[in-house]
Design brief:
Structural class: alpha/beta
Distance between the termini: 26 Å
Helix content: 25-40%
Shape: globular
Number of domains: 1
CATH superfamily: Glutaredoxin
Strand order of the largest sheet: 5-4-3-8-9
Number of strands: 9
Order of helices and strands: EEEHHEHEHEEEEH
Number of helices: 5
CATH class: Alpha Beta
């Protein structure tokens, strides 16, 4: 599992609109990778809505929040529309299946999806925060905001 102080592992994934997002191209900004097990589930929906609702706060903190799960791009697109997500990129770690979750050591092989986890990467592409949550628990967005505020 990735730890604080590790260099972030680069990846390219497609967002809900089929556009590629490459982590290394976000160097100079902070990045929140918010991994969730599966789209179309209640806790995951609340997790992604909390990213969207706090988009402005993330922008003020120089942070790009990205939702990541193993769902396909078409599923992500329909889900984003259903949830009213317009500003937050929802990335598809579908194929190779769970490759990015595996890179970060949070892929649950038996279930075929990632842990519920938040990973914050700083402007230099270093992991500065890593937390895994119980699958049934909504991550505390205020904990993330407070951590980011403390990085100033």
């Amino acid at each position: 599992m990735v730890k604080t102080g590790d260099k972030a592992k680069d990846f390219t994934l497609s967002d809900q609109d089929g556009k590629n997002v490459k982590l290394s191209q976000l160097k100079g900004k902070r990045v929140l990778l918010s991994f969730h097990p599966l789209a179309w589930t209640p806790v995951c929906a609340d997790q992604m809505k909390s990213l969207e609702e706090n988009h402005g706060r993330f922008e003020k903190l120089g942070t790009v929040a990205l939702g990541v799960s193993i769902d396909t791009v078409p599923s992500k697109k329909a889900w984003a529309k259903e949830l009213g997500i317009k500003n937050t990129k929802l990335l598809s770690d579908f194929w190779p299946h769970g490759e990015v979750a595996n890179l970060y050591g949070i892929f649950r092989e038996k279930e075929g999806f990632s842990e519920r986890a938040n990973i914050i990467i700083d402007e230099k592409q270093q992991v500065v925060f890593m937390k895994v949550y119980p699958l049934s628990k909504l991550p505390d967005i205020e904990e993330i905001i407070k951590f980011l505020e403390g990085l100033k």
